[in-house]
Specification:
Blueprint: H1 2-12, H2 18-37, H3 43-50, H4 54-70, H5 72-82, H6 84-102, H7 108-124, H8 128-138, H9 143-160, H10 162-172, H11 174-195, H12 223-238, H13 242-256, H14 259-272, H15 277-302, H16 307-324, H17 332-343, H18 350-361, H19 363-395, H20 399-416, H21 419-425, H22 427-432
Helix pairs in contact: 2-8, 2-9, 2-11, 4-7, 4-19, 5-6, 5-8, 5-12, 6-7, 6-11, 8-9, 9-15, 10-11, 10-15, 12-19, 13-19, 13-20, 14-15, 14-19, 15-17, 15-18, 16-18, 16-20, 18-19, 19-20
Length: 433
Amino acid sequence: MVSTALATTLARRNIHYGWVVVGATFLTMLVTAGAMGAPGVLIKPLQDEFGWSTSSISSALAVRLILFGLMGPFAAAFMNNFGVRKVVVFALALVAIGFIGSLFMNKLWHLLVLWGLIIGFGTGLTAVVLGATISNRWFTKHRGLVIGMLSASSATGQLVFLPIMAALTQTYGWRSAVYLVCGMIVVAAIAVLALMRDHPADLNLPLVGEVHITPVSGKPKDRLGKMLLSPITILREVSTSSTFWILFSTFFICGLSTNGLIQTHFVTLCGDFGIMPIEASGFLAIIGICDFIGTICSGWLSDRFDNRWLLFWYYGLRGLSLLFLPFTDFGFYGLTMFSIFYGLDWVATIPPTVRLAADRFGREKAGLVFGWIFAAHQLGAATAAYGAGLSRTELQSYLPAFFIAGGFCILAAILCITLSKVARTGPAAAVAH
């Protein structure tokens, strides 16, 4: 196999094959995140061709975001039972089917099934949990860095491809952007098939940072059933914790103020102020680039400072930036300032939230707990995706949605600094310990 030969070659140069797996995972998350972001530049073309309202299109996108989040707690079960490579290839195939099918759609329910259900399910299998699985399986040393890199790739991929898609849509029509997405999926699938392995032991390698090879345990026949039930069990256990509900609520607001709002509606919002899709997508690309920097820096900061106060500043500054946006008059300098300031904070909340979940609930439970917290993120994103579209349809303006999102971010900032007291005296203490 390619992976075996490459692992042997890299070992001679003291390079661990785990970094190749990270590269394949990075590409996969980048591509699927780009597929998640693609509808953001396609709302107006779909309106023009089919006559669908913004709220109707947004309802399908909201379903996609809900499934993207709800799959998080269960995706690990499939990966543990069937293997990472098989699950990722299956997920990429689902996303490709959803986009290829959209080339032939002509009814609103087609959009709901293809872009809502199929793409939502497929992308949910390759969400943040994929990055967490790879980092835990392959790394002891540099694990935090890997999580930061893969989290950044997921968020950045939703934005950096948009200028290209917007240019193709404007020049050749929206279906050309679909062809681009499908091409990227094929490239990612080839990389996964050729390079991805489920465990270091498959190549007779230890984890990065370890000396001895960790054998892969056997798989009982009922393992899938137990793994599918484990997220429900964990949810029932932590549902008595105030700390869990604060993290759940603040991450709901995180999704409300990022994916569902900016990623989904920013291009159309700019169009309402006379800005062409290519130019608007360029600002999203700036957000994506700044996000990559901000997320990695956030991971570094979360190792050194109080994570509650980091979240306080992240949510507070994000709220101020959203409240500032309607007053920029959507000029070049105002939007550039917003894109840089807001972009540095796009998913900077992930590393502190993951660390707080681990601190409060223990490392063994942290993955599943964060899976549910991430589900809240996507529920918030779905709320914003539909709510902002409804605002534009009923009120002829997106701006009320931005004011609401900014206000909720301020609320999230205040909630974050209550975590320490709740963890010591409330129900969370019993769960965490």
